[in-house]
Amino acid sequence: MSIMMPAADQAVLARRAEIAAALRAIVPGEGVIDSAAEMLAYESDGLTAYRQPPMVVVLPDTTEQVSKVLKYCQGQGIKVVPRGSGTSLSGGALPLADGVLLLGLGKFKRIREIDFDNRVVVTEPGVTNLAISQAVAHAGFYYAPDPSSQIACSIGGNVAENSGGVHCLKYGMTTNNVLGCEIVLMSGEILRIGGKSAENAGYDLMGIITGSEGLLGVITEITVRILQKPETARALMVGFAEVEAAGECVARIIGAGIIPGGMEMMDKPAIHAAEAFVHAGYPLDVEALLIIELDGPQVEVDELIKRVEAIAQGCGSTSCQISTSEAERNLFWAGRKAAFPAVGRISPDYLCMDGTIPRGALPKALARIRDLSEKYGLGVANVFHAGDGNLHPLILYDANKPGEIEKAEAFGADILRCCVELGGVLTGEHGVGIEKRDLMPDMFTEIDLNQQQRLKCAFDAEGLLNPGKVFPTLHRCAELGRVHVHAGKLAFPDIPRF
Known about the structure:
Blueprint: H1 7-24, E1 32-33, E2 56-58, H2 63-76, E3 80-83, E4 101-104, E5 111-115, E6 120-123, H3 129-136, E7 141-142, H4 155-161, H5 168-171, E8 178-184, E9 190-194, H6 205-209, E10 218-225, E11 227-228, E12 232-240, H7 243-255, E13 262-267, H8 268-278, E14 288-296, H9 298-314, E15 317-322, H10 326-337, H11 339-343, E16 349-352, E17 355-356, H12 362-376, E18 380-385, E19 390-397, H13 404-421, H14 440-443, H15 446-459, H16 477-480, E20 485-486, E21 489-490
Parallel strand pairs: 2-4, 3-4
Antiparallel strand pairs: 1-2, 5-6, 6-10, 7-11, 8-9, 8-10, 12-14, 12-15, 13-14, 13-18, 16-19, 17-19, 18-19, 20-21
């Protein structure tokens, strides 16, 4: 006895087969996945609370293939979700129900050029963040932005989200370390923007593309700046009896004109979780821990250590340990960089938030997070880039308990609203994605959002790239006034007047 499939399901399968066949003509071999079982690996990114399988997955490995795939999709009106390593924590790489094609860039994993004379690396987007530093380490160089997930996250994803890391305080975010890129528009047009030079004429299109979350085009090549390793780098591990005292210490260090290579803070739940996981030697009798790295010429580092230690004592520090070897310095950082997986051992689930506040507002933000934790009845572990005010509260919950995920999301939304109220922003490095999409009006006016969408229209007039992300309501380009990018330039006569 045969079971008749509903006509709607038959239509979906027929459409999938049609798309897959067309894509296989562009990306032969195993580059197209249309089996429901095999596509399960792509149904979510690091924001695992949400899942949506794509209709088809395509895995090109050349820029030309990406161009042909996008051109085909534009002609067919097919929406496309670009994806790197899938470590996004805001749902940025989540396939949506009306985004039928997931375009994975995992095969773009070659470093194309290492140019020590110009201190740059030209890389494909699927290369991991850490692999760039490893490729140039033999010559005493490294790539500065270092997200905690650097062993897995791709450089293309870093550009899409403008990622930071523990050393972004002194050396900048991704946007400060990317000089150029090759980007494919939805039309299939291939643009080269920027290059090896630190300065380029015309509009700052690199500044627009970095942090654009896959809404403007698909990046297929990136030119990044590499730095020479400092002569000396040492870290201090400073404990405090109160979180507010640690926050005051951060403000005083920056106020004294000292810019550490990195300055991170963890509260007691995060400290205990990280120490049990890594055994980094963290003090367990403190409420807050600062890890402060100072780098440069040895004589300068020695002097700065004395000054920072004195500032910490003035803020009431209860302990201070200074690294005496490279291995010990790396161990201090190992616990911090493993904090996210470490917290996963103390809670069945957690929601990692990402917001930024002015440094001076840190005590108020932490007090508000404590109050919200009591309000929602959910624990929280705080891990954050203290130097630049980028908070990463980890909200602890159990998805198997009815209503807890909803409480965690409401808790997280209130934290982000608090960040905006204190003069900060909704995201520091994880992006907006779907997680913060509906909070955008809390930060931007309707005029602001419409202006941002005009920029989206300039690159992707049909709104086919990464649908459902960033904007709570996406207007048609015709409603906003269309601008079009061609050959890397705005068609000046078409720019609407406001």
